[in-house]
Amino acid sequence: MYSKKIVIRYTPDVVQQPVIYQLVKQYDLVFNILKARIFPRREGVIVLELSGLKENFDQGIRFLKEMGLKVEPLSKSVSQNIDKCVHCGACTAFCPTGALAFEKESLKVLFDAEKCNGCELCVSACPVRAMEINLL
Questions:
Q1: CATH number for the domain formed by residue range(s) 2-73
Q2: Per-residue pLDDT tens digits for 29-67
């Protein structure tokens, strides 16, 4: 099975259409929504982890592009710079996925990159800028 994280940017004329449903129904793809910000009659963005057969994945991406959507790979990740981190825990309050957690025993902020969806909320929340964006 092929799996990849992608960013889909919606245009106002397409935002009302059931695009993700079409990926599931026509191309037998499985999706996990990592982040979404879509407004009626306006533009929007959705970050998905899309999985399925490679051939179906490629056909699904082609379908999205033919609809006029901008599709790109999720090209950044977030990491914790341990040297800068003071383990204040401010970032943990903003993390929607639980990728950042305060461990009471060690009094340290732990970062699980596998749970991170790349939303970057922790980056702006961190007072010492220990959470960093890495372009892949």
A1: 3.30.70.260
A2: 999 998 888 888 888 888 899 999 999 999 999 999 999
Nearest to 122 by CA among 93, 82, 83: 93
Residues of the chain with CATH 3.30.70.260: 2-73
Judged by DSSP in three states, 20 sits in helix
- Fold annotation for 76-135: Alpha-Beta Plaits (3.30.70)
Other beta carbons within 10 angstroms of residue 122's beta carbon come to 24
Half-sphere exposure (Cβ direction) of 104: Cα atoms closer than 13 Å: 0
What are the distances in angstroms from CA 103 to CA 9, 94, 123?
Answer: 36, 16, 19
